[in-house]
Amino acid sequence: MLDLGEVTQIDGGGLGTLVSLYASARKVGGDIKLANLGSHAHELLQITKLVTVFEVFDKAEEAIASFNRAATTT
What we know:
mainly alpha, 11% strand
């Protein structure tokens, strides 16, 4: 889970890093979830359609809880 609450700007390199982290996590059966996106980050994810790739949560606690729910259903 990545808490992006302190992130005010994301450029192409930052988006590339997020995608790379996501791909690496998925390769080993993991997942990357995003929390506390600011308006700039959320807008950028929508423009690039990455909002359909990542699970996005308002709060870090919600993202963490979603991992726990996924673990109990598998």
